[in-house]
User: Fold this.
Amino acid sequence: MVVLISTTSCNLFSSQGGDTHPCKYTPAHQQIIVTAITTAPAETPPLLIVSVINTGIEIAQRERHRVFDKFYRIPKHDPWKHGGTGLGLALVKKLSQCLGGSIQLESGSGQTQFILKLPL
Assistant:
């Protein structure tokens, strides 16, 4: 099993001119936690599991089923006025499905987590 864990602050990316998607939607002084693991080779199929957690923000239950829809943007959920097309998560979902995987969203307790699972 391989485990990669990275914790970063959006201030680090922002101060360097970065414009990563998680940083666009994570409030200042909050964290983005990225983990990647592989499941045991004996599991069929073995999986690569990548998790991205943004602290400090939640997605309302009524919006969660739509965030993977093409062109959907959560109304009034962009206080920083970053804009966007609403295609990013739809593309991630489609690509993960084409590769035989999945992506899911969990949100609550002051954080939002996206979990990507891909067969190896």
Q: What stands out?
A: The first strand starts at residue 3 and ends at 9. The radius of gyration is 15 Å. The chain has four helices and five strands.
